[in-house]
């Protein structure tokens, strides 16, 4: 678990470093993140999704509830390979939504349950650990609940990789980027994807940690 925390920090640092580097290189097409997002949506016949600016850095996301592509302030205005990659990636999620991409639908269906579970799951796990010598039931329930968050982390992976695939294919086909800029965009999205991979593996490591406590407690009974 400690190793995964260190790896996660390193990948986050690497991602920020890559984004900062590629943000300094101007896009030859001269398009901003907002313009790229609007163009990609239009090319896919999506007219009911708005592109808006949101505060912070690396806060870019697609919200299926209100159908908005939210671009961080820098990406919204920037005209760089990094901005092109992020803007097109978030629009990739909008395309997934519009085309009823199965993994996105599955992931979205899990959100209400996870929102409810996340409120009390830490308390169930903590109580389960303290009560393990008397009864394994609370920890077993906590592990079952935590397994949902781990499943969610792994379901997220194909959703993110598919959005990046759609984004890179479109910016290349549309001539948004040059060959060199395409390589930078691909590299930026790869490091972004690695943050989700590490998050999923970290969740799995934590789940296995609680399972080992559960099994150890049962053996001592």
From TrEMBL:
InterPro entries: Zn_peptidase_2. Keywords: Membrane, Transmembrane, Transmembrane helix. The keyword Cytoplasm does not apply. Signal peptide: none annotated. It comes from the Bacteria. The chain crosses the membrane at residues 109-132, 139-159, 188-211. PANTHER family: MEMBRANE PROTEASE YUGP-RELATED. This is Zinc metallopeptidase. It comes from Hymenobacter crusticola.
């Amino acid at each position: 678990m400690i190793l995964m925390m260190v790896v996660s920090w390193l990948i986050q640092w690497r991602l920020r470093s890559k984004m900062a580097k590629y943000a300094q290189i101007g896009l030859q097409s001269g398009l901003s993140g907002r313009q790229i997002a609007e163009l990609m949506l239009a090319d896919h016949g999506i007219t009911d999704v708005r592109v808006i600016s949101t505060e912070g850095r690396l806060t870019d996301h697609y919200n299926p509830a209100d159908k908005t592509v939210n671009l961080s302030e820098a990406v919204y205005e920037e005209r760089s390979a990094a901005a092109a990659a992020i803007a097109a990636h978030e629009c990739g999620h909008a395309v997934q939504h519009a085309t009823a991409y199965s993994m996105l639908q599955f992931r979205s269906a899990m959100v209400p349950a996870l929102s409810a579970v996340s409120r009390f799951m830490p308390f169930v796990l903590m109580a389960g650990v303290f009560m393990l010598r008397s009864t394994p039931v609370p920890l077993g329930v906590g592990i079952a609940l935590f397994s949902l968050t781990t499943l969610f982390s792994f379901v997220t992976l194909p959703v993110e990789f598919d959005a990046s695939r759609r984004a890179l294919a479109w910016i290349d086909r549309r001539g948004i980027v040059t060959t060199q800029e395409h390589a930078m965009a691909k590299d930026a999205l790869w490091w972004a994807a690695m943050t989700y991979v590490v998050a999923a593996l970290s969740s799995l490591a934590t789940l296995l940690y609680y399972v080992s406590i559960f099994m150890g407690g049962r053996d001592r009974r």
